[in-house]
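Handoff note, outgoing to incoming analyst
You'll be picking up this chain. Sequence as last confirmed:
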Amino acid sequence: MGLLDPDRLFPIEPGARGLARDLYETVRGLPIISPHGHTDPRWYAENAPFPDPAQLFVVPDHYVFRMLCAQGVP
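Most recent structure output, in case you need it:
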């Protein structure tokens, strides 16, 4: 075992832990699509390059945009 137990985020109860392991094994190779991640799922499906860094980091995320404006970034 490495420094961190691979089951550290799973329930400690054996039955629940086994179920959690089974569920994890079915999805572990899939990309993470967060409904609150401020990303368009098409980005992952199309795997196309972005025209510039702002289109990736600033434009789609209103929190980043507001923070930059609050700091005086034009």
